[in-house]
Amino acid sequence: MKAVCVCFEVHLPLPLRWYWPREGYGAPALEKYFEMEKTYNSFIRLKEDVSILNNALMDSMEAGGRYTLDISGVFLEQCKWEPAILDSFRQLVNRGANLAASPYYHSVCPLFPGLEEFKGQVSMHMDSLKELFGIKPAVFINPELLLEQRTIEVCRDFSFKCFISEGSHNIVNGCSPAYVYKNSVPTLLRQIDLSEDVEKRLSDRKWPGYPLIAEKFASWIAAMEGDVITLYIRYDSLHIHLQRDAEIVQFLKDLPGSLSVRGIEMVFPEDAASRFRQEELPSLHSKKTARYGMHNLLGNHAQHLYMHELQSIGEELDKLKMHDDHTKLQTIYRYLQQSDIFLEMNAESQRLGYEKAVNNFSILSDMKRALTEAGK
To answer: Sign (positive/negative) of CA torsion 355, 357, 361, 363?
Structure first.
């Protein structure tokens, strides 16, 4: 029987401010570098829609739906502003939703030369999920669906049962992403087109496939070859669809039944990993990938330089482990690792990407200054 795994990325980035050194050279702080008020307002606007969407997911689960939530530590921190949002997700998990682990700060640390920061953030995320939801995740997903073989080997040491990554062309190499692939941890690959039919196109009235109803979507899956279709969808896209119309709610409610009549079962990723035979895919061991390609994260000089500066700051921070402000500085440093910061520097508008990069380096420079002063 063919299976479908549906995963939602629950994440709201904490964006960097437009920062000008003339504001002064005081101590680093989240509110100094990041758009705290803007993020707070965006988060609070989610409250009503989260309730509607999570209720729809609970109805879907009653009909046989199985969903995995990849909730970033950044989002969990924001839930302190409005505990009702966390309660809604907790209720969803209590009713049977699954959880995935990832680096706590939605960080690019999987790409660091050393993996101590990666291990630390994974442990931090797992501890938070255990504390808040009472669950030890069996599934691991890197930010931006990064595939970096060294991190998969670390995931094996953490005893994860399944790893999910992007099904990009350089990885599938002419094969289908619709299988479980053999690796240090059994690996599932995102089916890009179907994921984005839900994520990007569902409420687009100009799209030839509109309206996307569950029955039509299930028929597309039934026509595909393979064992397991893995969908990875940004949760905030459901919020956007809901703002345009309410069709996403009916789609979620109808999906399990529409799949079931075609003999397709919704399962958790770890169950798919154990149920189906693992196929060989040599490119998993020799190449890297990320959502839409590695060039989105490290495709220009500014992104490479930012990565280099992050690593330099990390080295300076390691020298200050006994400093009174180490924990505070480490938190800021980890927020500066968010993958969203890298994506902004690869904006479609080259000028905007350049302006973002100049701004970001001003913040890194101020952070390095503070670390140098702290070390004196």
So the answer is: positive
Is the pTM above the cut of 0.70?
A: yes
Does the pLDDT at position 24 exceed 70? no
Phi-psi region of 103 (alpha: psi -120 to 50; beta: other; left: phi over 0): beta
Helix then strand then coil, % of the chain, to nearest 5: 55, 15, 35
**What residues contact residue 157 under an 8 Å CB cut-off, 6+ apart?**
none
End-to-end CA distance of the chain: 64
> CA 303, CA 162: separation in Å to the nearest integer?
30
- SS3 of 189-230: EECHHHHHHHHHHCCCCCCCCCCCCHHHHHHHHHCCCCCEEE
The string of pLDDT tens digits covering residues 267-296 is: 999 999 999 999 999 999 889 999 989 999
Q: Where are the domains of the chain?
A: 3-286, 295-374
Helix axes 247-260, 235-244, angle to 10 degrees: 120
82 phi, psi to nearest 5 deg: -145, 85
DSSP-assigned letter for residue 144: G
Pairwise CA distance, residues 231 & 209, whole Å? 18
β-sheet bridge partners, residue 34: 16
Q: What is the CATH number of domain 3-286?
A: 3.20.110.20
Tokens of 125: 């995320």
By CB atoms closer than 10 A (0-12, 13-18, 19+), residue 307 is middle
Query: What angle in degrees, to the nearest 10, is found between the helix axes of 116-133 and 149-157?
Result: 50
Confidence of residue 245 (pLDDT cuts 50, 70, 90): confident
Transcribe 292-328 into DSSP letters.
T-THHHHSSHHHHHHHHHHHHHHHHHHTTTTSTTHHH
What is the helix (H) or strand (E) element at residue 61, kind and residue range? helix 47-62
